[in-house]
């Protein structure tokens, strides 16, 4: 093999980079374990899970910007390490995954100024009805319905969208099609605005690796917050309507004396330990540990003052110099500052003029720049500015944000970025009054209690005005314009799908999955050594390197590892082992034919040997992965990503790393036999007439498929809520439960009996209901959850509703996870899954046709895949009612089904490749003999690969978590059936259709 040195260097560097990337995960986990231990040490019997989580968060905040690792050339803080760690999905880490729907209907009503036009409102009502059964976006449905009943009425009519507010965008008597384009732009603008507002809120929530993205043009936004524990807070955060406000601002000069007095008062407060203990004992809010931000080096509290946390000028402010910024602090100290400024002792220092002052922070931090010629240590920790807002008794802003008609980023005469803002007639009057009374002063633009801008007012302004700043960037101007437009958001985004996994369940999934995964890998490694001896050891080394590469790449690119992702890794491990098995079996064939070891190795690794089959098998699986990634959602994407990464790494390690190790052994004169005393002679001299038995196989397969179809059409399949809509809760109890009894109890609460089934253990139930699923609003979600709690109260003892709700770690009873899917999006998820399955089959059909140049090969492969899918579905239909684990058909099941598709195709293509090779060599043989001999020659490889793959899956099935058992059961059935079908279905179908092709020719 050429370029061995280059391959060795690449493998070494790649391995080191992978270890380097994975080390961040271990370091982050160590710090987080310390935080958990700290929270346990601080906990008392009265501490709730929420308070324990608060202790953890405060500990992590205290070390966020402290160096925890120094490698000589670079230092890393906890925040740096956290950014680089491997991201775990919801099913492994806990958290919330939600899809929000921006109501296009409400946007249209808002744009029409709540039009009373009869045609317009009828079209909206008709679009509402159709949306429940259609995957089209709402605007398309509205447009179609309007066209049906419009007659002479146009969308540009003054009573609809031809309003004064839209006069610059929609002209009188404009064609409906062009009005529709304008409406789409306005809707897009509303969605983008909502997206940015949500992004800003989430950034401040403190969750690592949040994900927020828009889903096509549907008006939907997906948010994933792995690790989020305070689910109630998150829900309010992402569903509440943005509140844009304009307030007058105190200058730094006006509050200077207050800060001087407050600094002295805080210093006095923090000297008196008895006062601190009193605060700690009498109020949880002012717990001194919370008050001081839990800094690990804060042992001498009497040395601290307000200025320890807040940087405000201690010098006299020069005459004429004022600023809207009154102070700044490290981001990690903002919570402490808030607590200090809210204590009654400090608030008492506010003068009459400052009595109603609200202290609010900037919307984003900044990194201080080191001044030129600065000598000494300069603190470059991110800081954030503080503003003093002129409040009032009623806490009512000077102007509400709903008066904004439009806002955009523009450039002034000097080509500097600024924000152009237009107000409606009501807003113009208010704005003119406010700016006229505050010339030379500051007015703050505030969204969600964060200050986005506090410009100085240079003159009285009218309906159109601009906001500018000397150092304002284009991006900052765009942000402010987005915020101003948020003031006209017609409604809060509605949560139409939500999956919540409690951290306890997530940790259990991690522990169970990785324990079983490790056990499975050990079994595979031992099997390879048992079967191939020293050569198997070399394959094991390549396999371990492959796993290192996969996890290293996932960590390097910030990919998210999920349970279906682990399934993708399982498949690639199977493919990696398969590649080595194919190569080793070809080498054994050469040795059996009395060829020398060196020649047999050369042929085994050549394109004429095993490489052709390996490449074909990997390409078909890669194509499947690409289609799944394009069309799939959620778990399917996670599966596809790890599958594609694994294919690349498996190919490299199986072909190159194994080759380097084996060549080294050969050159040293090592006697490699590629078997052991135990496996010697296995699967040799096999001559099975497979084609003669194909009719029996057809009958067996047909009977199983018909039985499955009968069950599917009579009994049906147990669809998960992500396919049918509804709410599902996994609830843990302190004692074993009777599912039938619980269902009867909950029937009284819900009106109809929910579906209740044991989930893993006897003290854990999965409760699924469609109660009020068609009603909208977060208050409905709370109501359903409260109803569930009420119905189960007799089984929960003294457990409070607060501790029953999902989120935070749970040591006993409570909701471990929940999922809600509205019926409309459930239909969309099913459609997306079907596209993924059929799309992958079509692409594979075309590739096999191109590669083997015969339609019969494509037909055989695709028929075998359909055969496997139907049998898996049939088994699930027949057994779901009595199996002791969850067997729902949902997105995770689709990922499992597609794993089966990938495995089956991989197996089939390897066999087809050998048939093609034999047909080229043995031209005088009958084609039936060619097929039988080819199948017999690959039988050892087929059985070996299947056994190793099943070993992995059985280990995970038996020792993995409850949430993955149904998923793994589908894989086990699929791999067993896939092995059978590649031998007794795909090849016979190919043979029979090829005979028909020859007749037609």
UniProtKB/TrEMBL annotation:
Cited SUPFAM superfamilies: Multidrug efflux transporter AcrB transmembrane domain (SSF82866)
Domain Protein translocase subunit SecDF P1: 194-250
Keyword Protein transport recorded: yes
GO molecular function: protein-transporting ATPase activity
InterPro entries reported in the protein's UniProt record: SecD (IPR005791), SecD/SecF_arch_bac (IPR022813), SecD/SecF_bac (IPR022645), SecD/SecF_CS (IPR022646), SecD_1st (IPR048631), SecD_SecF_C (IPR048634), SecD_SecF_C_bact (IPR055344), SecDF_P1_head (IPR054384)
Purpose of the protein: Part of the Sec protein translocase complex. Interacts with the SecYEG preprotein conducting channel. SecDF uses the proton motive force (PMF) to complete protein translocation after the ATP-dependent function of SecA.
Species whose genome carries this gene: Polaribacter porphyrae
NCBIfam families with a match to the protein in the record: 2A0604s01, PRK13024.1-5, secD, transloc_SecF
Domain Protein export membrane protein SecD/SecF C-terminal: 492-662, 816-995
Membrane topology, record value: Multi-pass membrane protein
Biological process per Gene Ontology, one example term: protein transport by the Sec complex
Cellular compartments annotated: Cell membrane
Record's GO cellular component terms: plasma membrane
Transmembrane region(s): 512-530, 537-560, 566-584, 605-632, 638-662, 696-717, 832-850, 857-883, 889-906, 943-961, 967-991
Protein name: Multifunctional fusion protein
A Pfam family per the record: Sec_GG
Chain's gene name: secF
Keywords assigned: Cell membrane, Membrane, Protein transport, Translocation, Transmembrane, Transmembrane helix, Transport
PANTHER family for this protein: PROTEIN TRANSLOCASE SUBUNIT SECD, PROTEIN-EXPORT MEMBRANE PROTEIN SEC
């Amino acid at each position: 093999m050429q370029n061995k040195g280059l391959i060795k260097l690449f493998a070494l560097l790649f391995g080191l980079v992978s270890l380097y990337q994975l080390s961040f995960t271990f370091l982050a986990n160590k710090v987080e374990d310390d935080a958990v231990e700290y929270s346990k040490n601080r906990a008392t019997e009265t501490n709730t899970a929420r308070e324990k989580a608060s202790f953890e968060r405060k500990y992590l905040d205290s070390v966020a910007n402290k160096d925890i690792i120094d490698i000589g050339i670079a230092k890393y803080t906890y925040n740096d390490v956290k950014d680089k760690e491997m991201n775990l999905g919801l099913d492994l880490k806990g958290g919330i995954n939600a899809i929000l729907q921006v109501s296009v209907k409400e946007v249209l009503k808002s744009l029409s100024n709540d039009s009373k036009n009869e045609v317009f409102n009828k079209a909206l009502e008709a679009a509402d009805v159709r949306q429940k059964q259609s995957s089209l976006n709402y605007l398309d449905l509205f447009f179609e319905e309007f066209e049906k009943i419009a007659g002479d009425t146009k969308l540009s009519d003054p009573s609809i969208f031809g309003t004064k507010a839209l006069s610059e965008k929609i002209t009188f008597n404009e064609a409906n099609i062009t009005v529709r384009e304008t409406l789409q732009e306005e809707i897009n603008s509303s969605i983008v605005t909502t997206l940015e507002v949500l992004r800003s809120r989430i950034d401040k929530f403190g969750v690592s690796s949040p994900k927020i993205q828009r889903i096509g043009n549907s008006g939907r936004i997906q948010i994933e917050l792995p690790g989020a524990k305070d689910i109630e807070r998150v829900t309010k955060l992402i569903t509440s309507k943005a509140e844009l406000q304009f307030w007058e601002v105190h200058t730094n000069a006006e509050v200077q004396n207050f800060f001087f007095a407050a600094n002295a008062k805080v210093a006095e407060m923090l000297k008196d330990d008895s006062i601190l203990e009193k605060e700690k004992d009498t109020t949880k809010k002012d717990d001194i540990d919370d008050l001081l931000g839990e800094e690990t080096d804060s042992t001498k509290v009497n040395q601290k003052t307000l200025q320890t946390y807040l940087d405000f000028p201690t010098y006299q402010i020069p005459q004429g110099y004022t600023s809207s910024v009154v102070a700044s602090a490290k981001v990690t100290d903002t919570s402490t500052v808030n607590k200090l400024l809210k204590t009654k002792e400090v608030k008492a220092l506010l003068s009459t003029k400052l009595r109603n002052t609200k202290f609010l922070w900037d919307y984003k931090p900044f990194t201080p720049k080191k001044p030129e010629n600065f000598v000494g240590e300069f603190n470059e920790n991110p800081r954030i500015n503080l503003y003093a807002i002129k409040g009032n008794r009623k806490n009512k802003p000077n102007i509400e944000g709903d008066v904004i008609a439009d806002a955009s980023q523009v450039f002034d005469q000097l080509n500097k970025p600024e924000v152009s803002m237009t107000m409606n007639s009501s807003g113009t009057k208010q704005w003119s009054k406010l700016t006229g009374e505050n010339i030379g002063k500051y007015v703050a633009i505030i969204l969600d209690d964060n200050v986005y801008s506090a410009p100085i007012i240079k003159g009285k302004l009218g309906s159109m005005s601009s906001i500018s700043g000397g150092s304002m960037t284009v991006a900052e101007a765009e942000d402010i314009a987005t915020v101003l437009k948020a003031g006209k958001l017609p409604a809060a985004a509605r949560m139409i799908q939500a999956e919540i996994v409690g951290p306890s369940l997530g940790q259990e999934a991690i522990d169970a999955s990785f324990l079983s995964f490790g056990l499975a890998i050990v079994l595979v490694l031992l099997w390879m050594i048992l079967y191939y001896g020293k050569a198997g050891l070399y394959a094991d080394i390549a396999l371990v390197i492959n796993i290192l590469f996969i996890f290293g790449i996932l960590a390097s690119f910030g990919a998210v590892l999920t349970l279906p992702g682990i399934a993708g890794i399982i498949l690639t491990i199977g493919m990696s082992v398969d590649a080595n098995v194919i190569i080793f079996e070809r080498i054994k064939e050469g040795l059996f034919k009395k060829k020398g070891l060196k020649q047999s190795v050369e042929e085994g690794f050549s394109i004429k040997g095993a490489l052709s089959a390996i490449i074909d098998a990997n390409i078909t699986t890669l194509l499947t992965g690409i289609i799944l990634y394009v069309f799939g959602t959620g778990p399917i994407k996670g599966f596809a990503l790890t599958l594609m990464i694994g294919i690349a790494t498996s190919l490299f390690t199986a072909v190159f790393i194994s080759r380097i190790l084996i060549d080294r052994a050969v050159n040293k004169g090592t006697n490699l036999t590629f078997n052991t005393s135990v496996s010697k002679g296995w699967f040799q001299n096999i001559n099975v007439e497979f084609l003669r038995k194909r009719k029996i196989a057809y009958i067996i397969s047909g009977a199983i498929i018909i039985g499955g179809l009968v069950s599917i059409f009579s009994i049906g399949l147990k669809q998960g809520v992500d396919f049918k809509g509804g709410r599902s809760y996994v609830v843990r109890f302190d004692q074993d439960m009777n599912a039938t009894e619980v269902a009867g109890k909950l029937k009284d609460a819900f009106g109809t009996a929910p579906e209740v089934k044991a989930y893993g253990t006897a003290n854990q139930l999965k409760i699924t209901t469609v109660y009020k699923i068609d009603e909208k609003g977060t208050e409905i979600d709370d109501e359903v959850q409260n109803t569930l709690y009420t119905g189960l109260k007799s089984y929960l003892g003294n457990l409070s509703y607060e501790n029953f709700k999902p989120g935070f770690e749970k040591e006993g009873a409570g909701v471990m996870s929940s999922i809600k899917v509205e019926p409309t999006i459930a239909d969309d998820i099913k459609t997306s899954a079907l596209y993924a399955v059929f799309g992958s089959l079509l692409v594979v059909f075309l590739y096999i046709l191109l590669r083997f140049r015969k339609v019969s090969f494509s037909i055989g492969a695709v028929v075998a895949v359909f055969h496997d899918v139907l049998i898996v579905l049939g088994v699930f239909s027949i057994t779901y009612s009595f199996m002791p684990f969850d067997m729902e058909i949902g997105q995770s099941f689709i990922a499992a089904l597609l794993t089966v598709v990938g495995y089956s195709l991989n197996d089939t293509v390897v066999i087809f490749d050998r048939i093609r090779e034999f047909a080229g060599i043995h031209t005088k043989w009958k084609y039936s003999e060619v097929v039988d001999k080819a199948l017999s020659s690959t039988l050892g490889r087929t059985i070996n690969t299947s056994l190793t793959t099943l070993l992995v899956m059985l280990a995970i099935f038996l020792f993995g978590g409850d949430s993955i058992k149904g998923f793994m059961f589908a894989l086990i059935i699929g791999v067993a059936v896939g092995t059978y079908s590649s031998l007794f279905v795909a090849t016979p179908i190919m043979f029979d259709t090829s005979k028909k092709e020859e007749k037609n020719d």
